[in-house]
């Protein structure tokens, strides 16, 4: 039997502000995909672009759990 490939859900991500390039640490929730965040450096209210599902996918180098679940289903990965 073939081994399933495992894809891990990140616990924390670094969100990068598009206005000032300031970095903000965020905790990833499996239930919620955040649609905005306020940059602690410049106080800019960063909104989710229409082309992305959430600010994690748009402003970090990781993907949110919702996107990872969809990819895992298509590719046959196991999530942890």
Would you give an account of this structure?
A hairpin with a 6-residue loop joins strand 2 (12-16) and strand 3. The protein has a domain at 11-62. By secondary structure, it is an alpha+beta fold. The chain has 2 helices and 6 strands; from the N terminus they run E-E-E-E-E-H-H-E. The strands form 3 sheets. It has a two-stranded parallel sheet with strand order 1-6. A two-stranded antiparallel ribbon has the order 2-3. The protein has helices spanning 55-59, 65-75, and strands at 6-7, 12-16, 23-27, 36-38, 45-47, 78-79.
Task: Offer a concise description of the structure.
This protein is of the alpha+beta class. Helices cover 20% and strands 25% of the residues. It starts with 5 loop residues before the first strand and ends with a strand.
Features:
single chain; two-stranded antiparallel sheet; alpha+beta; 80 residues; 6 strands; 25% strand; 2 helices
Rounded average pLDDT: 87
> What form results from the Cα inertia axes?
elongated
- Tally of DSSP helical segments: 2
- Unreliable stretches (pLDDT < 50, length at least 5) are none
Radius of gyration: 14 Å
Secondary-structure blueprint:
Elements: E1 6-7, E2 12-16, E3 23-27, E4 36-38, E5 45-47, H1 55-59, H2 65-75, E6 78-79
Parallel strand pairs: 1-6
Antiparallel strand pairs: 2-3, 4-5
